[in-house]
Design brief:
Number of strands: 6
Helix content: 25-40%
Structural class: alpha+beta
Oligomer: single chain
Number of helices: 3
Strand content: 25-35%
Order of helices and strands: EHEHEEEEH
């Protein structure tokens, strides 16, 4: 499964510096859902987290929106790509 993770520029820089995102890592099933969450929480960076192991994914009981479901991954994530940054893309 692919998830989209909404974060801040400061945390994105920390992820790059350390080489991983520390578990649990929360994300949405669609880019639109992550963008909606980012607008709601003031986060300005969306990362795509590819190839997450299905057995380590758990559906969150809340945080869902009309655009997608919210999930969390119970392991560190070491692979991602930036798909949106308000500082670069807007």
């Amino acid at each position: 499964m692919i998830l989209y993770h909404a974060t801040t520029p400061k945390k994105a820089k920390l992820y790059r510096h350390t080489g991983h995102i520390i578990a649990p890592v929360r994300g949405f099933t669609t880019l639109q859902a992550a963008l909606a969450w980012a607008c709601k929480t003031g986060r300005t960076v969306i990362l795509e987290l590819p190839q997450l192991s299905d057995e380590r994914l758990h559906k969150l009981p809340d945080h869902h929106n009309i655009f997608g479901e919210a999930w969390w991954h119970d392991g560190d994530v070491a692979e991602w790509r930036c798909v949106f940054s308000a500082e670069k893309d807007a």
